[in-house]
Amino acid sequence: MTDTAESSTSTTPPALVQIVAGRPHPIGSFRFFFADQRWEWSDEVAALHGYAPGTVEPTTDLLLSHKHPEDRDAVAGTLAAAVRDGTAFCSRHRIIDTAGAEHHVLVVGDRLYNSTGATIGATGYYIDLDGGLADLRKQVLDETVPELVGARAKIEQAKGALMLVYGITADQAFAVLQWRSQETNTKLRVLAEKLAAALTALGGGPLQQRTQFDHLLLTIHQHPDQSVTA
């Protein structure tokens, strides 16, 4: 993802919201401007925290107040490092909504640029890892079995990478792949094959690889096809 400050805040694809049973808002978008610590969040992210759309202005303090006490310091450190270094960031943690319910979320952010190409913030997504994963997996399997038969190995490889990098389950990894497929209008097996092919190019230490993978996950649909067939 190479968003700019001039672009409007992205919205969650309606189709994705509709196919995830059990929770109405499993995925939402955000933008975070480093200089003034200003946040913008979609209605889905507001709802995930327990707020009706437009009823509260997101701030760093507000967001941190919703983090699980055991995760709060780590998330604060991740955000501080992103502001200091101007880098993408990712965090898997727990949040507590206004009703006291606990949600496991994956937050993936890529760099946000201004018109001159300078990094001014981050833009990305909240993914509710508790939201309707079994039903999502069943529907996706029903719709894509012909493709899965021919590309199962690559899909499993891509799932394995997500599980390793983010510490999530196989079903959660599959849901993330399907989300990116829906978000980018890219066939699931094509996306998985591109992601699997690009994994070998990741270098550096674990932290550098994690940052590279965050960016890769959000931009892999833009990579040219290798031996992928439609």
TrEMBL record:
Entry-linked InterPro entries: ANTAR, PAS, PAS-like_dom_sf, PAS_fold_3, WH-like_DNA-bd_sf
GO MF, any single term: RNA binding
Residues in ANTAR domain copies: 135-196
Pfam families in the record: ANTAR, PAS_3
Domain PAS: 41-86
Entry protein name: Transcription antitermination regulator
Native organism: Amycolatopsis jiangsuensis
